[in-house]
């Protein structure tokens, strides 16, 4: 699932679940919406991404490339080491600013019973 939120200067994509070949049908529509918003900063929140393959990486790369062509920037927030590795193997990690300070939130269900927290995602050092 991918949600889009905007402010006057920023578009934020919040991605949950897999970002892979099985999800590719929604990528063109989302990319068109993000590009159409024409914000200078794109923040991609990956705290809840469970898996990303090269198809998902190509989607993120296309978003970053479109923004860069307009003079904008793309920030990856909550990307884990695996996600960053995929982008690095694709030769595209330099298209992104990596927010290594962001701490992903854990979730607690409405019942109040704590769940296992989501792993903290960060840029490898």
UniProtKB/TrEMBL annotation:
All residue ranges annotated as the STAS domain in the record: 1-91
Ranges for region Disordered: 103-125
Question: What are the transmembrane regions?
Answer: none
Q: Which Pfam families match?
A: STAS (PF01740)
Spell out the Gene3D superfamilies in the cross-references.
Answer: STAS domain (3.30.750.24)
Q: Which InterPro entries match?
A: STAS_dom, STAS_dom_sf
Superkingdom to which the source organism belongs: Bacteria
Name the chain's protein: Sulfate transporter/antisigma-factor antagonist STAS
């Amino acid at each position: 699932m991918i949600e889009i939120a905007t402010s006057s200067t920023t578009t934020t994509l919040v991605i949950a679940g897999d970002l892979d070949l099985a999800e590719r049908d929604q990528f063109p529509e989302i990319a068109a919406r993000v590009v159409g918003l024409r914000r200078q900063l794109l923040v991609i929140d990956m705290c809840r991404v469970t898996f990303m393959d090269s198809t998902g990486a190509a989607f993120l790369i296309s978003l970053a490339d479109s923004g860069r062509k307009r003079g904008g920037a793309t920030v990856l927030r909550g990307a884990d080491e695996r996600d960053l590795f995929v982008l690095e193997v694709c030769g595209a990690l330099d298209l992104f600013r990596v927010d290594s300070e962001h701490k992903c939130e854990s979730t607690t269900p409405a019942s109040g019973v704590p769940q296992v927290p989501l792993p903290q995602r960060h840029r490898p050092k």
